[in-house]
Design goal:
By secondary structure, the protein is an alpha/beta fold. It has a domain of about 90 residues: Gyrase A, domain 2, CATH 3.30.1360. It contains 21 helices and 13 strands. A 4-stranded parallel β-sheet has the order 5-4-9-10, with helices on both faces. Strands 1-3-2 form a 3-stranded antiparallel β-sheet. Helix 9 packs across helix 10. The longest helix has 30 residues. About 40% of the residues are buried. The chain binds arginine. Arginine binds next to strand 9.
Amino acid sequence: MDDMKKTLAALIAGALTQTFEGADGVPDAEEIAGFLEVPPDADMGDYAFPCFKLSKALRKGPPQIAAALAAAIDAPQVCTAKQLGGYLNFFFNREQFAKNTLEKVLAAGERFGASNLGNGKTVCIDYSSINIAKRFHIGHLSTTMIGLSLKRIYDFLGYQTVGINHLGDWGTQFGKLISAYKRWGDKQEVENGGVEALTRLYVKFHEVAEQEEKATGSHALEDEGRAYFKAIEDGDAEALALFNWFKEITLRDCARVYDLLGVTFDSYAGESFYNDKMDRVLAELRQKNLLTVSDGASIVDLTDDNMPPCLILKKDGATLYATRDIAAALYRADTYHFDKCLYVVAYQQDLHFRQWFKVVEKMGYPWAKDLVHVAFGMISYEGQTLSTRKGYVVYLEELLARAQEKALAIIQEKSPNLPDKETVARQVGIGAVIYADLFNNRIKDIDFWWDRALNFDGETGPYVQYTHARCCSLLRKAGEQGLSETAPDYAELADDHAQELLRLISRFPEAVLDAADKYEPSMVTRAVTEIAQAYNKFYYENRILEAEPAVRQARIQLTKAARDVIRTGLYLIGVEAPERM
Ligand code: ARG
């Protein structure tokens, strides 16, 4: 909560005791702070308190209450309070507000909004979690960037975080890939072609298997694939070596994208990591009488919870995706003692998570309540469902390459003398892609269009980055001209534009807390965008470097505060902030 809310709540609480002594059921200062609202329009003040919240306890109409409280509040150094209908509206003392806000922000610098709230607490974040032998495409961007952003946000709030890439590295498809490789593969081709070459082999396997089935009704090839998978499971040296090599190739390809995006992980323990941890899950489920056999498969019945059963073992005794997730959760609880374990996964998997979360709850683990599915919307490609087969797909490498090319072309045209153009083009192009991904509420479906993805105008990453670079440039000039000696005159920041900017800056810490609370990085994206927009308005309305020394100094300080907060906000959503553009 921001400090201004706390101060106002204390004033209201004081006025309440003074005016309505002894009334029952009157909220305390903390509750009051929770009721404070931002009025729909800045003419109505900085905060408003809805007095109907008190009508019942005080047995009076809201306007009467508002008038009584307004009369009782006398704190000109902080604000003036006015009755407006049933609301008590607060107008900050603008000079004081500017002074307090800037002193706080400038003392904290890029750490403004950081806290030790999470001290001693651990959050595990399962994100990206790619499947081996598949190429990284736009469908993987949200999990990767929401996950990274949440990790940074929780770190910023003092939590210990563990970023986990729960690799999809288990399943019959890897047996099929071995079979295809042994029949048609070439070592050099795979080394050079990477995941694309593996995908070609996989596609060929399916084509041939289908033809074979049509021509002769035989499933020999499919059986061979299954046999190779069994060989991996049994630890056959050759099969394992090939499987590990496929994994290496995939991770090598993905690492290029992760590097560009600035994404890192603390653990790559994927599905196969839990092979030797399955027995414990099965033994516990049996011992707790949760396992039933149905049609030869082992399941946990969830009829009472209105869900289809959770599949634990197939007929042939193979474990499933859910079994591995349960094993992984037990392992994470034992290893990291998490306070929360987040799964950043598309909402299509909603049932899967609800099912196995319920199973863990039935197993009696109290931390089952700390497992959170952080779901996000579907991505489609120009109105079509993503489909690699039909070509409705955009690979991330291509998207990132095109975004960087476009950024470079713009820089060549608009700032031909910029030093290190390639680096800036990378920061801007990739920033645009990430920002767009984290702009809307995560649950919203995204339809990908090239022109939209490569748009740099309006509410975009480059716009916010540009504002940051503008602040940097102004501060550079001020520094070069040695303009930082005079004491600032905060009364000069009383105009509407400066105040709007200060208000947004002062609310930034709350946006970060809300983002953590709701697992919603877009709240940071929005906050930082509004700050950039407000800064630009302030910048156009006011002379800064040419103003009187004390005025100039106040405006320079505000510019510095805007720069720091924008930089932090961009960092928290995984976007870099170049100093020159
Ligand atoms: N590899 C899975 C997929 O691509 C996502 C894994 C998400 N994480 C998890 N623990 N289930 O669908």
